[in-house]
Amino acid sequence: MKNGKFLTMAIESSCDETSVALLIEGREVLSNVISSQIKVHQVFGGVVPEIASRHHLDNINQVTDQALAEAGVTWDEVDLIGVTYGPGLVGALLIGLASAKAFAFAKNIPLVGVHHIQGHISANYIEHPDLEPPFMALVVSGGHTNIVEVKDYNTFEVLGGTRDDAAGEAFDKVARVLGLGYPGGPLIDKVAKEGNPQAIPFKRVFLEKGSFDFSFSGIKTGVLNYLNSEKQAGREVVVADVAASFQQAVMDVIVAKAVTAALAMKKDKLVLAGGVAANSKLREMLHEQCEKNGIQLYCPSPILCTDNAAMIGCAAYYKYKAGFVSDLTLDAFPNLSLSAR
Ligand code: KG4
Ligand code: ZN
User: Fold this and answer.
1) Hey, what domains does the chain have and what are their CATH numbers?
2) 185 labeled binding residue
3) Residue 85 in 3-state DSSP?
4) Which of 1, 111, 148, 189 is the least buried, fewest Cβ under 10 Å from its Cβ?
5) Structure confidence by residue, pLDDT tens digits, 106-126
């Protein structure tokens, strides 16, 4: 307890960010230290799982100490430890998990395993203190693209997901073929501002009528084919136009499906989450469509969109309050489903 208030520590290590956070009463962030490995993986054009695990191991203790120091709290005040146990890179998850279990055991603190996507959604509770379920959530990240009906803090129904690439993955792959660098999402977002989104009519893939699933591998191939045909014809490619047209095509589908899902399930709140939620075009389009359809849109600030431990701590708090506790046999699940918990 910190001044009589419940204190949660959380650890996130599912991909390439080692993060530890401390929160009061689940929603008030005292510290949220994020050690990013982006520079390490940049030379490879993507995250190398084994290298990620090693860096988590190098960083975790220091990040934990820093999080405690920045929050101005001691171990004795920590009431709960939350940790991401899936989905993610198994070696990376295991480092955070082993640390959380060791801390919980040594300090005799309850432990709660958190689904990474529940964490992303929970970032919105931190950002918007008045937000409460039920609502519709759009989760768009490097590993996931899901439309989720959030029935209460711990009950979810996944209405749709990607059948191949996640949205962020498609952004990263297209950025690579355009020679923009890694991670590609923010770079495409930036370059696209200078381009014409109507320049190239990339196909919008909506799948079967009424489906809330996604498919982004086709548009990725579409960009590759376009670049090859332009090269063969000896024409110069306008990178900004390709980036803007690709981004528009992806967002046309995502926005349409998310708003349709909210209306279909009679939800007047739509919550945006995940790394791609930082995308300026997505935010602009969602604002417009939500306003038109009487839906209130909730977005986290950019630092809470990408991977961070504060969002995991918030989710852990609500799981614990609902009676969920993990024991020290808690394992990492790289493909953990949101309904499994
Ligand atoms: O949520 P996150 O940090 O990690 C996963 O759980 O996957 O998301 C990272 C993803 C990357 O694919 C990155 O390119 C994408 O989010 N991203 C963006 C933007 N900022 C980050 N995609 C589009 N536009 C952005 N501004
Ligand atoms: Zn994530």
Assistant:
1) 7-123+305-340 (3.30.420.40), 133-300 (3.30.420.40)
2) yes
3) strand
4) 1
5) 999 999 999 999 999 999 999
